[in-house]
Amino acid sequence: MATILCIDDQAAGLAIRRELLQSKGYDVLIASDGPSAIALARQHSVDLVILDYRLPGMDGEEVASILKAENPACPIVLLTGYPGEVPQRLTAIVDAFVEKGNSATVLLAAVEKALTASRMRRAQSARLTPKRDTA
Fold first, then answer.
1. Could you list the pLDDT tens digit for every one of the 135 residues in the chain?
2. What is the torsional sign of CA 39, 9, 108, 26?
């Protein structure tokens, strides 16, 4: 199953998301700040990121920019309680946007949709990439 990196400075929210995602069969990594999240993404094969916007030290836009630069194919779901503060530059980077306070079903649907789209892009890319002759 997919590995999801959840980034949020609120420990209670991280614990709830970890439990929810693990109950659906996902492997879950958690980080409470941007630098820790980036380090985890560099150490592990991450299939999707759930990212809070308001983080200590680095905001969600900085984190998303670094993660996308290092792994452009990894989808990011932005999850925030402050949708009015999110700059348009960030919404252009992320693959989905979920407002905190929505039901778990909304978050799970965004995760599954982003993962499915990512799988389809990888499959299409594999079909379009010429095979090299190893003989």
1. 899 999 999 999 999 999 999 999 999 999 999 999 999 999 999 999 999 999 988 999 999 999 999 999 999 999 999 888 899 999 999 999 999 999 999 999 999 999 998 888 878 777 776 666 665
2. positive
Contact 53, 84 (CB under 8 A): no
Using a cut of 0.85, tell me whether the model's pTM lies above it.
yes
- Residue 99: how many other CB atoms lie within 10 Å: 14
90 touches 61 (CB < 8 A): yes
CATH no. of 3-128 = 3.40.50.2300
The domain segmentation of the chain, as residue ranges, is 3-128
Reduced to 3 states, what is the DSSP secondary structure of residue 76?
A: strand
